[in-house]
Amino acid sequence: MRRGPEDDARIRRATEREGRRARRRRARELMQNVPKHNDGMSSDDEVTEQQNLAFKQAKEEIDEESRDIFSDVMDDFCTVRGILAKLESWRETDMEAYTEAYVSLCIPKIISPIVRLQLITWNPLMESTDLERTKWYNGLLLYGLDKKETEESLRRDPDVRLIPLAIEKIVIPKLTSIVEKIWDPMSTSQTLRLVGTVRRLIIDYPNLNEKSKQLQLLFTAILEKIKSAIDNDVFMPIFPKILDPKHPFFQRQFTMAVKLLRNILSWQGLLGDNQLKSLAITSLLNRYLLAGLRFSLPVDALHKANMIMTTIPRAWLHGSAVQDLNMFATLINQLSDKLDQANPAHHEAWEYSQSILRSIKSL
Fold first, then answer.
1. Please, what is the end-to-end C-alpha distance for the chain in angstroms?
2. For residue 61, with 0-12 CB atoms within 10 Å meaning exposed, 13-18 middle and 19 or more buried, which class applies?
3. Engineering a disulfide at 255: which of 40, 82, 177, 197 sits with its beta carbon 3.0 to 4.6 angstroms away?
4. What is the Cα–Cα distance from 278 to 126, expressed in whole angstroms?
5. CB 46 within 8 Å of CB 184
6. pTM over 0.90
């Protein structure tokens, strides 16, 4: 069968990844007193240097093209500040008519095409860019500014919620699109940046709550993307214990599944606990990770179980929530029964098993 360009590119990327892993392994072997590394946890596996370069080049091209879109349009009609200046003139001359026309509710729709163009390369998964430093945000911030304003006048100001509305109507849908098309739940760096962005927006803008339709659409997209990662990106190869209990491919796949579990649980406090438990415990832990533990030797399995336990939120170890971990606790009991307490090589695994069981049964 003839190989095509895509096959050559795939082989080249795989070779680059293996080369980096080999260099990291050699470096770790030369270093002493460093924490044990688990193959599959490295963020360097997520994006290659070649992919980074291609991304930067594409971004620069898009930035350049986007600047030409309104090149033949006057600033009064293609900048947020220019458009707001005309509306502000109306606001100053006839506030009553301005208010009755619900202009404040229309502004996010009016400026949406311009803001979306300025956000075209905004990607909080790759880099941190404060929205508060953008030109369109500053334009909204200064809109209707009155040096003589008082607390009472602010209460009557129809535009007091202008920025929160713009964030909800423009930024959140953009973020939803990024989640659907770009975010990789297997990537720890992307996940932590996304979690930080969503958390910061919810804290800064109180209108982003359970009543916000756009926020709920964002959460739905996040849950669907996680579910897709569990269904399509997790693979637990099963090797007979007698054949190769520590096959490198199995070890790597198991560690990557634990990494996904950790990434999923980083959403704790943002997404609903019931939804997270269904994905993290029922779909990932019980379906894949426990299978991997069953086909590992007891000592190795308990080391893996301890790695899993460090990712479980402490809040899930209290009250009725702990019932979701019954299958995990049962397997830990079975594994600990297979240990030889007289064997020094089993002591650490025994301690892990008892620590896990104490945590789960601390009710």
1. 61
2. exposed
3. 40
4. 29
5. yes
6. no
